[in-house]
Design brief:
Distance between the termini: 36 Å
Number of helices: 6
Strand order of the largest sheet: 1-3-2
Shape: globular
Helix content: 55-70%
Strand content: 5-15%
Order of helices and strands: HHEHHEEHH
Oligomer: single chain
Length: about 120
């Protein structure tokens, strides 16, 4: 599990900011979580669909990342009682509130890529 705790003692006036950043980091920490959130921001997805979209991820890791996102209130897991079983994943309201952060990260990444290509 990719969960981290801040080590050391930040200056008093910065303690609250560090704690909130550490909490945010804990929610999105993990190799695949940001990409999972990005795909789910586009629409509801099934497990196998997500796995196909993430080449190199194992079923176990995808399951763990989705469970952590669900525990953190970012992802909703809907199980349909049918044969064969059907499970869909979507963003919760809390997860949807993270979409502007994803968009900002994407814009930053584009600019960074442009800078790196010029080097």
């Amino acid at each position: 599990m990719a969960r981290f705790n801040f080590q050391g003692e930040p200056p008093t006036e910065e303690k609250e900011d560090v704690c909130s950043l550490t909490l945010a980091q804990n929610v999105i920490a993990g190799r695949w979580k940001i990409i999972i959130l990005w795909y789910l921001s586009r629409r509801t997805r099934r497990f196998n669909e997500l796995q196909r979209m993430l080449p190199g991820i194992s079923k176990g890791i995808l399951t763990r990342q989705l469970r952590e996102l669900e525990e953190d209130g970012m992802v909703h897991r809907e199980v349909y009682k049918q044969v064969p079983p059907k499970v869909e994943y979507s963003l919760t309201q809390q997860g949807k509130s993270f979409i502007p952060v994803l968009n900002t990260m994407g814009e930053w990444g584009k600019k960074y890529m442009e800078i790196k290509q010029k080097e």
